[in-house]
Amino acid sequence: MKRVVLLLALAFLLAPMVALADGVSLLDFVVAPSAGASITYDGQGGPLVGQGISIVSVEGINTPDNDGVVVPIVGGLLNFTTGGLTGTTSSTWSFGGGENSFISITGLSDVSCANVPGPQCLTYSENGGGPPPIWLLFGGFGDATVMTFGSTFKIAGASFWDYKCWELLAFYGLGDYAFEPLMGNFNISFNAAGTPPGGFASTQVLSGDVVNAVPEPGTLALLGTGLLSIAGLVRRKLTS
């Protein structure tokens, strides 16, 4: 209940900006709880690091093709490293991006590649579950922020750029954007003891979304923390 109230409050505050993004296609990768996942900050000015975070599906929203179709992702993992700490408040940690930052999602999807030949993205059925998962997106960070609510509940929000698997984009009718960087945001909720400016290590990664807007609306480019994606997804779920 606490989480729902928090998300609704953020959606209310950011709703005017979200409205400007209407009509833009979204690709929504869903974060799920997973054993072994972690989000950490060393408390010494280092980066925000996420490892082994489970990604279970991707959905196209307002896409030219296969709008609303959810594609399961087998063995999907989100890993990221932001730039170093840039500042703190009484309730937030802020991190930069830069050339040493990195974000990736790997996994096997069951997207049909029959009409979109190419080596970049093999399906799960084509691989037979044997070869290691391949990348679905990779890129780097603009910036990131972690907000703490009480002693343990936290939300990480970030803005990033990435390149995506061509077949996945083509499945949703967005193949023209395969060779240019896309802008995105993520929000991930987790439990971890610690308050700014100290460090923290998650005890449980809860849920979240990794979202790209195609083409990128200006409001998303201006957003520095990625919390807009929280408002947009809550708004969509409340009105669906």
Architecture overview:
The chain is of the alpha+beta class. The chain has one domain (2-239). It is built from 5 helices and 11 strands. The protein has helices spanning 2-19, 124-127, 166-171, 218-222, 228-239, and strands at 25-32, 38-41, 47-61, 70-88, 92-95, 102-109, 134-149, 153-164, 182-191, 200-201, 204-214. Strands 1, 2, 3, 4, 5, 6, 7, 8, 9, 10 and 11 form an 11-stranded antiparallel sheet that branches. Helix 1 (2-19) crosses helix 5. The longest helix is centred in the N-terminal third of the chain and has 18 residues, at 2-19. The chain is globular and about 45 Å long. The two termini are 20 Å apart.
List keywords for this structure.
alpha+beta, 240 residues, disordered C terminus, globular, 11-stranded antiparallel β-sheet, 5 helices, disordered N terminus, single chain
What structural class results from the helix and strand content?
alpha+beta
How many domains in all?
Answer: 1
Outline:
globular
- Compute the number of strand runs: 11
Give a quick rundown of the structure.
Helices cover 19% and strands 45% of the residues. The chain has 240 residues and is an alpha+beta fold.
Topology summary:
Blueprint: H1 2-19, E1 25-32, E2 38-41, E3 47-61, E4 70-88, E5 92-95, E6 102-109, H2 124-127, E7 134-149, E8 153-164, H3 166-171, E9 182-191, E10 200-201, E11 204-214, H4 218-222, H5 228-239
